[in-house]
Write a structure and sequence with these properties.
540 residues, 10-stranded mixed β-sheet, alpha+beta, 14 helices, disordered C terminus
Length: 540
């Protein structure tokens, strides 16, 4: 794979010139939206030599892109809706992504207990056969049938479930995936502006004139040759209210909610459960001590940025999980929840769970300067979406540089300086963690493992010349030294305790309220942080 190290000599660097406030900022492309699609497009276009400015009104991945089920998957259930093209595209991307960032993504085996009252065995086997063969696999093993009376995944289940089906997909730290794309874009010259809203965009024959306003109310003019609308759930609203476009696509906003409970099983498998309403939910090992259960599909009718799980969704997820687990899952077992709004293309489907998860890229050059709008999508296909977006937009700007991301590492993903040539992504990470332990035996094992997962080969930026725990500074909260907080502020756009505890990490789930407050005080003392509206509900 190609390196993603910012020091790589071959890296194209077309930096957006820094200008003082009050002076227009000139760029090739202004991207509105700092979720996975916006940051993925910024990375791809920057790597093709274009000058990019990306603005995000909140934190990176603050909304939909940090509220997924954390899966890199083809979408087994989409086969029933005949979405073969979407599933194939997603299946092709799984191993591309796993190889690009083995620290934040890894293979995961899923167990589907067979419920005789729902789908018949032949249907499941046919679906898994397609799932195994719609795209080439090099890393992920094929599906198989197992006897749950003997398989470790059968232990926590009700005795009635004796047969199961096992297949492969992948896990991803979704919020960190967004940050890594932003880091790579920035290293290639892009300007990443968080807590900065695009309040006005006017189209001319030769370009766009936009006005950005940061969280302190300071205004900045941007002149761009093209505009990319990657505002996710706000895409339609942004076009109408801020870019003054008419006749936009219709989005269907569907809320997906998740619950987190104390660990329900000790083995490394995840579960996919079929429900009587023809939907599915997942139960996934999460953060070591927990199990993640989700998701729902409910029409979202409230404010776009304020998605919260309701009592009915909690009851639904508990009820469906309890159909399978021998120990019932009850609402009082829930220790944390999060919810996000998926911006799906409105295909007039009556069932929210049946609305297509595929995306549409709409390039409009009829009104003057190019306007590219991103409609829909899912996290698994973000890289392909970004590549197709760059392929569409590049010729309109006179740039025909080919795509480059398929064989490239994301920041931190190239572990060769620690382990030599890559072999298998999952094994490479374990070798990396072992080498990190050998080089820095003084690192506490739990923190070392967390750092290895979060930062990969960039972990050296945190450790620096440290020779012991004292060199990392004060431990602001258990397992969270000042060196890490300084890194996240300096390198990863963290401006609040919530950025650190719920998106750059999930430490908030493991800390007590006084410990989280200590992080808030540390950030406030240095940054006067700005708190955005979280999709997560506070941990108890």
């Amino acid at each position: 794979m190609k390196p993603s190290d910012p020091t790589a000599a071959s890296r194209p660097r077309v930096a957006v010139p820094a200008t003082p406030h009050g002076q227009p900022l000139h760029c090739d492309v202004l991207i509105v939206g700092g979720g996975i699609n916006g940051c993925g497009i910024a990375r791809d276009l920057s790597g093709r030599g274009l000058g990019i400015v990306l603005c995000e009104k909140d934190d990176l991945a603050q909304h939909t892109s940090s509220s997924s089920t954390k899966l890199i998957h083809g979408g087994l259930r989409y086969l029933e809706h005949y979405e073969f093209s979407l599933v194939r595209k997603a299946l092709q991307e799984r191993e591309v992504l796993l190889k690009s960032a083995p620290h934040i993504m890894w293979p995961l085996r899923f167990v589907m207990p067979h419920d005789r009252s729902l789908r018949p065995v032949w249907m499941i086997r046919a679906g898994l056969f397609l799932y195994d063969h719609l795209a080439r696999r090099e890393v992920l093993p094929a599906s198989q049938t197992v006897d749950l009376r003997r398989h470790p995944a059968g232990t926590p289940l009700k005795a009635a479930y004796t047969r199961g089906f096992v297949y492969s997909d992948g896990w991803v730290d979704d919020a960190r995936l967004v940050v890594l794309n932003a880091l790579d874009a920035q290293a290639r010259g892009a300007a990443i502006l968080t807590r900065t809203r695009c309040v006005e965009a006017r189209r001319g024959p030769a370009g766009w004139e936009a006005t950005l306003v940061d969280v302190e109310g300071r205004r900045r003019a941007v002149q761009a040759r093209a505009l990319v609308n990657a505002a996710g759930p706000w895409a339609e609203q942004f076009l109408r209210e801020h870019a003054h476009q008419r006749g936009t696509k219709a989005l269907r906003l569907v809320k997906g909610s998740h619950i987190v409970v104390r660990r329900l099983f000790d083995h490394p498998y995840a579960y996919i459960f079929q429900n009587p309403d023809k939907r599915i939910i997942f139960a996934i090992p999460y953060e070591g001590a927990y199990t993640l259960i989700g998701t729902t599909d409910v029409e979202h009718l409230g404010p776009i940025g304020q998605a919260h799980i309701d009592d009915g969704e909690i009851a639904y997820l508990c009820e469906q999980a309890s159909r399978y687990f021998a120990r019932p899952v009850r609402p009082e077992d829930v220790v944390w929840t999060y919810a996000g709004v998926r911006p799906l293309l409105d295909d007039a489907s009556g069932d929210p769970s049946a609305v297509t998860r595929d995306y549409l890229l709409e390039l409009d050059t009829t009104g003057g300067a190019p306007l590219l709008s991103v409609w829909g999508g899912k996290i698994t296909t973000f890289r392909k979406l970004a590549e197709e977006a760059a392929d569409l937009l590049g010729p309109a700007l006179g740039v025909r540089t080919p795509g480059w991301t398929e064989g490239a590492f994301l920041p931190g993903g190239d572990l060769s300086a620690y382990i030599g040539a890559p072999q298998r992504p999952d094994q490479d990470f374990e070798r990396f963690d072992a080498e990190l332990a050998r080089r820095h035996p003084w690192l506490a094992p739990a923190m070392r493992r967390r750092w290895a997962r979060a930062y990969g080969a960039r972990v050296g930026l945190l450790i620096g010349d440290a020779r012991g725990p004292a060199d990392l500074g004060e431990e602001v909260a258990p397992g969270l030294p000042e060196a890490e907080l300084e890194y996240l502020v300096r390198e990863e756009w963290a401006l609040s305790a919530d950025d650190v505890l719920w998106r750059r990490s999930k430490l908030g789930l493991h800390l007590e309220p006084p410990q989280r407050e200590a992080v808030e005080r540390w950030m406030a003392a240095r940054l006067d942080p700005v708190h955005g509206g979280l999709t997560e509900s506070p941990a108890p």
